[in-house]
Description:
With 93 residues, the chain is an all-alpha fold. Helix content is 77%, strand content 0%. The termini are far apart.
Amino acid sequence: xxxxxxxxxxxxxxxxxxxxxxxxxxxxxxxxxxxxxxxxxxxxxxxxxxxxxxxxxxxxxxxxxxxxxxxxxxxxxxxxxxxxxxxxxxxxx
Length: 93
């Protein structure tokens, strides 16, 4: 292995460790989000609101686009969040 190869391999290991840390944070945040979603689900019948609110989903997508500074494209975030919202709707609690 050359010096460049070794340096690149070490940098890859550092970045992978950073990704593992970020993934742990994402899992923690997704679970926190799930708890919020479940709490809202329990409160909606109290105020006679339907469980599905397409306007709220669109509001979420608009909010995400406002916060997005890249490199993800707005369509990427929408796809990721569509999956997250689907899972949140399927949660049992």
